[in-house]
Amino acid sequence: MTTTLPAPAPLTGFHLYDTTLRDGSQQEGLTLSVADKLAVARHLDELGVTYIEGGWPGAVPRDTEFFARAGEELTLRHARLAAFGATRKAGVRVEDDPQVAALVDSGAPTITLVAKSDLRHVTGALRTTAEENLAMVRDTVAHLVGLGREVFLDAEHFFDGFRHEPEHATAVMTAAHEAGASVLVLCDTNGGMLPHQVTEVIEELRTRLEQAGAGAARLGVHTHNDSGCAVANALTAVRAGITHVQGCVNGYGERTGNADLVTLLADLQLRMGMELVPAHVLEETTRIAHAIGEIVNMPVGTRAPYVGASAFAHKAGLHASAIRVDPDLYQHIDPQRVGNDMRMIISDMAGRASIELKGRELGFDLTGEGELLSRLAATVKQREASGYSYEAADASFELLLLDELGQVPSYSTVESWRATSQRGRDGTLESEATVKLHGDGDGPHERKVAIAEGNGPVNALDLALRSALRERHPEVDDFELRDFKVRILDAQHGTDATVRVLVRTSGRGLEFQTVGVGPNVIEASWEAIYDAYTYGLYKSGV
Amino acid sequence: MTTTLPAPAPLTGFHLYDTTLRDGSQQEGLTLSVADKLAVARHLDELGVTYIEGGWPGAVPRDTEFFARAGEELTLRHARLAAFGATRKAGVRVEDDPQVAALVDSGAPTITLVAKSDLRHVTGALRTTAEENLAMVRDTVAHLVGLGREVFLDAEHFFDGFRHEPEHATAVMTAAHEAGASVLVLCDTNGGMLPHQVTEVIEELRTRLEQAGAGAARLGVHTHNDSGCAVANALTAVRAGITHVQGCVNGYGERTGNADLVTLLADLQLRMGMELVPAHVLEETTRIAHAIGEIVNMPVGTRAPYVGASAFAHKAGLHASAIRVDPDLYQHIDPQRVGNDMRMIISDMAGRASIELKGRELGFDLTGEGELLSRLAATVKQREASGYSYEAADASFELLLLDELGQVPSYSTVESWRATSQRGRDGTLESEATVKLHGDGDGPHERKVAIAEGNGPVNALDLALRSALRERHPEVDDFELRDFKVRILDAQHGTDATVRVLVRTSGRGLEFQTVGVGPNVIEASWEAIYDAYTYGLYKSGV
């Protein structure tokens, strides 16, 4: 089935093109489910990127499914969805190439075609001729443009190819432009370029394109970090007039990663003065970068520019007194502009300030509560040192705060619990859990003993706890544990390490996270789940 | 005590100046003992850096001790030791400033003095006048040069200061040069510069220095990564004629870190053609970077340029077939030149070509085994779709391959296992596991029932399995499970989700990863641990 779409209006402004879902997922250790991809795409849209490359439909089954589900489940406010694919095969009519048909069938309004532009790759890897390579580009671009698609050309190995032999590299670009491609993207596929080489290639390419009558072509850039210059190379390309940059959130990507799109956005807007997204959107950058890090289970590096936990952290010492005089003297931008915070490491004052801020966020006015803030700061510091992390677990932090305020609700006293998993002689897996508790507060205080089976020990514990609470608090059934993340701390200890569990719960119009830490995954999970029910019941006014 | 040294001969070649032991240790979470510092210094010397900044004697007690012990315990073959310190205090004679005296007493042949060069810092933070600031620079440099020290000037906030008000910034540099400083270092202390700004500042500074009669001054650069451009900014400065670059191994440093000196060295030598260290020294780069990462307990990032574990790892099926033809088409340098290796990552994007390459890496020649490769590719794809990930789990992949070849060893047949965790009435946590199995292969086949306690259910299972295998295979005790990673797949299902566990095991000279997937963390862990013992025993020739 081949659908002709009404040609999408070109996005004339600067293109911030994200390829986290395609090139980013080439990173070692990064594997995204379709649900992950949809969740990342929503965050990218919120970040204000102009294009989201969703994957390679037809080549990767998961990506085919992503585009199918995106059509139904994904409502993008700003971004446009792009499908990645290749030009037609050598010696095959474009109409007969199933890979090209799958791109069309994906329904994506924009299609980014990768093409060889380094003659050595054309003959050595593709094993075809320069002429056929040009025909492949021309045919595929024209075919897709004819079907109403916006087409971008990713010229693979462009910098290496152009520096080796500029005629063919230029001819590929000219062919794509003439066939109707909207953007010609110069890819530093192997990632070895340095900034001055980027400038040289772009300037010479422009001259050659003008000579070929393709001077009006819009250029883009796609960089990798193999020489440690991915971001600088992209910025340099923008200085040289390029208006479309590709990258991945948090610098994910094959080998050393792609240009970090978060850093690029902040650099372009805050250091080069471009107005790419509204100021209030930029203030969400840190939150979004970390949220995506959680989804892909590859946390933002502490040293990441702008959004890393240490990006605006100052070790006490040489700078401390000067920072108190004027923080702007010691930071290159105001961290609030990207939603991050200045932090004084090992500084009671900074700890209190951020807890006051966090309290305000949660609706508690703690102004002037110096002693309470000091106590809370000390507790948080001590608990974070033992493995807790309140960064994501707002609900657990709020319970801690309520506890300090003497307002923490107690719905039950736990006597004991047990969880068992086993594989029997016939190979069947069984998990069951027992929970014994007494009701607290008003109402009957009798002892409850509940048992439940689950498809794992944590699931069984969750069901047994819910069952023990149900009679007095039927509201527990309105909550659902939606996400469950385990991180091993101090990994050098093997199966003997400390474990942190984050649980996301939703229900009764709420969505919140709790945290548990313990010497084993069951104990840590128990703590997070127990907090989740406590918080859920408390917020329900029970 | 003030020692006059014979003035050291200036190092006329390019300066690779490492400040890992001073600026690098400002990184959040990085704390170095004196022994650590000495060990790092030896590695830096081996790497071929020209200067090692050891710390701030006098200001930091540990650094005073470092210089004292370095004099006796540290024999440097190439590098020269530098002490970091500040110019004299405002309103104090340089001879009377104890901080300056401590620098002299450190015995370091080179002293790097930090000075304010941004007028706003002079008046706002230092609370003194421009004239006094210049006198502080002049006096301190002349004093130390008079005592036979080689003196470098670190002009703090130079780029920001120069862009704000170039007269004073230039005057600081001129004063230091006239007083005898060998190198004037432009510091981007807040780390926000972009490459084109670096070029602009250096060019304008040169013009001003020439006008001031200080055109012969040697310039250096010190960059931070707050805009993601630390390495590019240093390279750009070198392109602009600077012959002294400062950085930290692995990019350690305050906030977002300093310029990564490892990346810088490799870029300068391999991509800009400078001969900084002999080729055989460069081949030690990966080993040294990782060794330092171990000492400072902050491992090299997998995505680190040149030396990261993923720096030359290829995942995409698209590339694998071409890599087989010519690896150089797909990497920006030969990884052997920095002592790293190309690696093929097996994933669901992998086709037959990458499996063939992976097999070769593991010592299996699968050339011409088309049918076997197709079967393996299909198995990998199907298992990855159900949650397995062979990217990191080489050992599990090898077991899969051995299975296809009918060579998979079997050491036991598992009858059943059970793992229990509980919290009792008194709050004590207990985890225990039972494993029942029969021996396979040669030797007694009798049934073994083993029970073990652990600090969690997985630890208990590990110990029980080990105990059940021990009598027939005492080699199991040579292995240790070192790392344990849990990933919840399809997280939307909450505690009901599929779980993937990666286990890293070492022993008998081996280090390898195995993977397990299951509906619960216990079952998935069991599979990964069981594979780990199977693989370990097989590789031990049992």
Automatic annotation (TrEMBL), chains A, B:
Q: Does the keyword Amino-acid biosynthesis apply?
A: yes
Pyruvate carboxyltransferase domain mapped to chain residues:
14-283
* One GO MF term attached to the UniProt entry: 2-isopropylmalate synthase activity
| Enzyme Commission no | 2.3.3.21
Question: What biological-process terms (Gene Ontology) are attached?
Answer: isoleucine biosynthetic process; L-leucine biosynthetic process
Top-rank taxon of the source lineage equals Bacteria
What's the protein called, per UniProt? Citramalate synthase
Q: Organism source for this protein?
A: Brachybacterium saurashtrense
What high-level taxonomic lineage is stated for the organism? Answer: Bacteria, Bacillati, Actinomycetota, Actinomycetes, Micrococcales
